[in-house]
Input
Amino acid sequence: MSTVPVLLRHNRIRLALHELRGGEGRPLLHLHGLAERSPAAVPAHLAGWPGPVWALDLSGHGDSDVAIGGGYFCEALMGDVDLAIGHLGAVTIYGRGLGAYVGLLAAGGRAELVQGTILADGPGLAGGGPTPGSPAVASAVSPPPPGGTPDPWALYELTRDVRPPDYATTYVRQAASRSGLDTPISVVGVTRPPWLEEVAAEPGVLECTLPEALEMYATV
Amino acid sequence: MSTGEQVEEQVTYPGARPPDRQRTVDSSGLRIAVHEWGDEAAPPLLLAHGGMDFARTFDVFAPLLADSGFRVVSWDHRGHGDSEHAALYSWEGDLRDALAVFDSVSPHAVPVIGHSKGGSLMLQLADALPHRVSHLINLDGLPSRRSFPDVSDHQRTKLLAQELTGWLDHRRRLVDAQRRPGTLDELADRRGRMNPRLERAWLRYLVSVGARLDPDGWRWKIDPTIRFGGFGPWRPEWSMMRLPDIGVPVLAVLGTEPDPLGWGTLPADVMSHMPPGGRLEVLEGAGHFLHIEQPAAVADLVVEHLA
Output
């Protein structure tokens, strides 16, 4: 891993984009789970990717800035990923947990530049469920850890965000209609929160193993 | 006169009174500007503005309530008015900031008024923290499904593609964002496009209290990264579904006139969700900004409701 990340600016937040491995070809962009950070090296299960591997620390995580006052929501994280895409060009995305949901949003949001998105298990996969629950307003959370990340407000807010299945599937349809791929989304995990259950059933989505997904997207 | 030659102008408006006190409250590290009218020892009444507004839009309405014997407390949502510009804006953040203001006023239940988005926020706060709200008054802040017409699947896919691309392109440009400067009258004109029913004199007054005079002209104080329209999974019925939960006296007020920034909510939409004892008043001839168009009438309704 290059020890000095590329710093991108998403409004008032600096985002750390790490190059885990150089090379030629389309990069694989790793998106971590809730309260995680980018890996320090290419994980063994992604070593089979033929091209460069990069990893993004989402807002409030890793070496990226926290948002003072909180206010985290997944569409803002989609914007984080889009800035990485702006820097890297066309990518294939591997997202785990929260990174899987945000990766799906990016796959639909910037469909022409996301050539395949792999959705894997990880922390933050479910979010706050398909509909709003009983409302709550927190006035404080636990103090931030040493170094400031993961931001406790990110943990609080990104476990409560609502993820309606029909909202998630609109991003699948965007990816299917605009990416140029027959199967722009692959589901490689085991857990199926309601949004992912419906996504997995959509046209354009393949349930397969991680090696199968990597091989498929390496050749598009 | 070019924008570079402008001097700060004292603009007044009949009935408008600046706040008696201004202070700030810390909300998780963000500075939230608070404005108060009336005797500090009087019973408090919290007042939440709508999206793209600011507390000083209550400069006529709030004094009427204060003169009726209340300590009126309003605040600028994060990024709006004199409050600090934030890195992120969200419903959760706005609710949390509101609670910080509540905590600075009283730990006990207080009456609350909310206009437009402020009304929806206060409705959710009252549902989440019923022990902190004694009366709930909602001024055209109840979005209904009717506001969002159906379109075909194909159209929806195409519209969403444009919306997504537009939103992402906007997010990429945020780092360089600046509000467009102009003369006081140009800013009033721009505001008037969003608020066609409001008097020009009022719009000019709003510029004088809601914008700042930079060397190259007037600029609205609101964070340039904030723009109209939300984005995400929210749907209007998620607000309305809170209303039946409310156990304190509820007053909802709607206007009869269509307005670009209004929700288009009809009385029947509200009454089907009104909790027992809740009351709906419909103000003839008023648009979305009913507390600005008919401040005395709305203030009378509020005072009567709180009596």
User: Anything to note?
Assistant: The radius of gyration of chain B is 19 Å. Chain B touches chain A through 47 residues (CB under 8 Å). The first strand of chain B starts at residue 21 and ends at 27.
